[in-house]
Amino acid sequence: MRMQPLLNSRQMREADRRTIENGTPGFTLMLRAGEAAADAACRMLPQAGRVLVLCGPGNNGGDGFVAARILADRGHRVTVAAMKPVADLSGDAAEAGHLWGEAVCPLAAADPAGADLVVDALFGTGLARDLQGEVVEAIARVNGAGRPVLAIDVPSGIDADTGLVRGAAVKAERTVTFACRKPGHLLYPGRAHAGAVEVADIGVSCMGLDGPAVHANGPEIWLPAFPRIDPAGHKYDRGHALVLSGGPGHTGAARLAARGALRAGAGLVSVVTSARALAVNAAHLTAIMMRVCDDPDEFSDLLTDDRFNALALGPALGVGEATRRWVEAALEADRATVLDADALTSFSGMAEGFAALARAPREHPVVLTPHEGELRRLLAGPGEVSAEAREIAGRPSKLDRAVGLAAFANAIVVLKGADTVVASPEGSAVINENGSPYLGTAGSGDVLGGIVAGLMAQGMPGFEAAACAVWMHAEAGARFGPGLIAEDIPEGLPAVLRDLLG
Ligand SMILES: NC(=O)C1=CN([C@@H]2O[C@H](COP(=O)(O)OP(=O)(O)OC[C@H]3O[C@@H](n4cnc5c(N)ncnc54)[C@H](OP(=O)(O)O)[C@@H]3O)[C@@H](O)[C@H]2O)[C@@H](O)CC1
Ligand SMILES: Nc1ncnc2c1ncn2[C@@H]1O[C@H](COP(=O)(O)OP(=O)(O)O)[C@@H](O)[C@H]1O
Ligand SMILES: [K+]
């Protein structure tokens, strides 16, 4: 399996520029892009049909003119509607317009309802601002017509870098993109607008570019770092993870996380419980052990034993001063640590103080696993927050929010959701895509935190452990499908692990 880089529009321009500098003319690239789009269109049209190609004012439109020419030559009845007359185009797009060589109607006259296929070549990576006016109207007509749509490179109106809609955006059944996918193909709502995405090789390399290293999440990212079991080893070689339980009445979350950690392969897992919650935890635990700690000082004492090498805390701990003290004790002990839910929300309005704790020099990784609401509460209050924290929370792009929090707290961040982003403090990130909406079920995130801790207990580095946990959690949930509850996720891991490890 090869790494799948996701290039932003600046990096993509740079990749194109390098290819052109190395001797392939830009127009040759456009011919290849247009041909790939025409091939994709033909696969969507089993026989000759009526194709409407919508062409924008830039090179995306150029790709559309080339595709229109090829489709017409292959016997389809092609109508081209364009934002600008061919005479007003420049560069490669002008050449492509001349290659089309037939009539072009204004965008306002385009009739998507009368087409068997609409090819969307309005805007690609060059979309620079929100769409307005007649383009918005044309997109509404396309989306309202209910005809199959093939988008060239990016569904027009979707920001290739962020996946956000800029004013209005085409809803495509398929998208053909070039060289590699872009973050906007994986981030919602762009992912939903793009439909099935295929990547065409047009001779542009995506490797060796400056700027953020963003990839699609997959085993190629983290399988090389996956802990291998030693045939002569024993359970202590695979670490001992501790998961903090809430009080009586709030104990289930910790047990879900603990089960995730154990199934992920930690040698031993213990739930840290207060004496008051001991009986309820004991009534539900078998392979998972328990340790009684009634306050953070006792927890610090427990952590003088360095066999406890991974910690997970947050779910159902309660929001407030007490939880902050548990978090401080955990961070001071310098173990591989997962902070989730109330461990983050307890620092609402105290982002600077939280970051100071997380940033203190340490040997072992800290992984934060907020969903969007938890990130917002941590960075944007209520309460006094710095301009820096508020700016990160306000970033429109999920990718930028995750990377921002990771740098701010010097921690690995798992920003959860349908398009979970895992980010490192150095700015690299992966976007996950193998999940299922059935994962949105109570306690699902608790299991995820436990899986991260279980992998780190076995010595897996933090970023790889987080990316692997997100992928395995999503895979287990997607394989189970309808009816999934959080308890099913740990039980789905053995099958996922078997397929991964052979
Ligand atoms: N580079 C290469 O070699 C290759 C590139 N390829 C293809 O090129 C595409 C990128 O081409 P691109 O850079 O020309 O950008 P594109 O997406 O066509 O849009 C830019 C145009 O739209 C305009 N515009 C922007 N926002 C607007 C708005 N809101 N509302 C209205 N207008 C707006 C903007 O004008 P301006 O901002 O100057 O007003 C400009 O005219 C890429 O996605 C791929 O399909 C392939 O052929 C392979 C080789
Ligand atoms: N539509 C979806 N597609 C894929 N994964 C999802 C979707 N909705 C939620 N998830 C995943 O489910 C988990 C929910 O976690 P979280 O929000 O913490 O819930 P809880 O607090 O109930 O455990 C996260 O891992 C998230 O990425
Ligand atoms: K497009």
From TrEMBL:
Protein name stated in the entry: Bifunctional NAD(P)H-hydrate repair enzyme
Entry note: cofactor: Binds 1 potassium ion per subunit.
Presence of keyword Lipid metabolism: no
Pfam entry (one): YjeF_N
Cofactor(s), names only, from the UniProt record: K(+); Mg(2+)
Reactions listed under catalytic activity: (6R)-NADPHX = (6S)-NADPHX; (6S)-NADHX + ADP = AMP + phosphate + NADH + H(+); (6S)-NADPHX + ADP = AMP + phosphate + NADPH + H(+); (6R)-NADHX = (6S)-NADHX
Similarity field: In the C-terminal section; belongs to the NnrD/CARKD family. Belongs to the NnrD/CARKD family.
Binding site for (6S)-NADPHX: 59-63, 124-130, 153, 253, 371, 446
Gene3D superfamilies per record: 3.40.1190.20, YjeF N-terminal domain
InterPro entries, sorted: CARKD, Nnr, Ribokinase-like, YjeF_N_dom, YjeF_N_dom_sf
Matching CDD domains: YXKO-related
Organism listed in the record: Enterovirga aerilata
Function: Catalyzes the epimerization of the S- and R-forms of NAD(P)HX, a damaged form of NAD(P)H that is a result of enzymatic or heat-dependent hydration. This is a prerequisite for the S-specific NAD(P)H-hydrate dehydratase to allow the repair of both epimers of NAD(P)HX.
UniProt cross-references to PROSITE patterns, sorted A to Z: YJEF_C_3, YJEF_N
YjeF C-terminal domain: residues covered: 218-500
Stretches of the chain forming a coiled coil according to its record: none
GO biological process, any: metabolite repair
EC number: 4.2.1.136, 5.1.99.6
Superkingdom of source: Bacteria
Molecular-function GO terms, alphabetical: ADP-dependent NAD(P)H-hydrate dehydratase activity; ATP binding; metal ion binding; NAD(P)HX epimerase activity
Binding site for K(+): 60, 120, 156
Subunit record text: Homotetramer.
